[in-house]
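S2.1 Query sequence (Glutamyl-tRNA reductase)
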Amino acid sequence: MVLLSLTASHRELDLDALERLSTGSSSVGRVVVGSCGPVAGAVVISTCNRFELYLDVEAPLSGDAVRHATRHVAELVAHASGVTGDVAARSFTVRTGPEVTEHLFAVASGLDAMVVGEREIAGQVKRSLVVAREQETTSKTLELLFQTASRTSKRVGTDTELGAAGRSVVALALELAERELPPWDGTRAVLIGTGSYAGASVAALRARGCDDIRVYSQSGRAEAFAESHGVQPVDSLVEALADADLVVSCSGARGRALTAQAEPSPAGPGARGLVSEDGPEASLGHVLDAAALVRARERAADRAGDEPEPRPLVILDLALHRDVDPGVADVEGVLLFDLATLKAHAPAVAHDVVAQAQGIVDRAARRFEETRLGREADAAVVALLDEAEVRVVAEVADAVMRLTAELDARGEPAPDEADVEAIARAVRKRVHAELHDKIVAVRARATAEARAAEAALVHGAEALTMHASAQRDAGPSRRR
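Output structure tokens follow.
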């Protein structure tokens, strides 16, 4: 088996392109395993700043084969996400063999993150494996790969300052927001969404002294989340926004099949607005749009009474599939930070800290590859041992038959159990002694074949990446 990965992240693409590419991420793993014969397993990582597909592919494959396989996978991703096949193919960086291992371990450890050292990604890597198990798309090799990635991430977190810094997308967002907010103990916060970022946001807000936290979920999970996290659920997002200083939106619900508006939009029946799962009509609008926010700000102004203006509102949109309409930034008294803003403000990390973490990742990747290649060789050795055991049984039976005939000719009793055991020990010792050189040769050949297959994949991947780079350079420039 050979490892193959296709990666699209904030490093290669602008966030708009990444958002389009990852739209169909929930079904890609099943589709690829179900329709691409050589693929024995698939695990998908889809986060706010990356979309990655890890594949366990039957080897050996030639360079041409990997180009065709990668193109096929890109077409499947394109179909699921609604982009063209050329766009999907150009968007991916292709890695094979040891490169896949090192990259995943770096991702899980926060070294390839928008905010270097962020810890949320470790949980997202774990959850991606859980989803693959539920969808029955994982494999033994991918299981071991992802479990080892999680252990490596934990080691980086405990053995380096990178893990002690508390760095995350949520933390960076709150650092940017606090300049525009009242003191944290007087800040009123509203969360949109109940996923992992929402949980991380509750913890981060409380660590800063914010206790007035409410949660809204258009999927109906607000009450359960509120109960488990000790916050207040809200049914009306407009009402909550009218009384809020800070909104942290991280539902990622845009692009799903949502339903009719929870409250009528002041812009009219046809306008996009707040959506819930309580109505009969499908919608692909933003969770929060400018019209709904204007309504909330009008309510805030009414409540302010004689005050010159309502308190300003800071909105953090942490969802890759943007929860918040960018037009919200034009509403008076509103400040919007989205992922593009956070990417621009992501702080640097000391070189020696990154180097220490990278060293842990490199060593773990080498050990994993040695173990994986060893397993490839072990399979060949097991087959050789099975063959030797068949030979031992046959030779022991033949020796016992000859001894029985000799004893019978002399009028002596047939061999007893002790005689048979002695013959078996002698035969097994001789066969295994002869087997030593064969085992050494088989291990060397199996390891060489595995490396040769990976070398062919690397050559194909390099060619594909160069072709994609050429297409990117030749195409129109993308907005960054």
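The first helix runs from residue 15 to 21. The radius of gyration is 30 Å.
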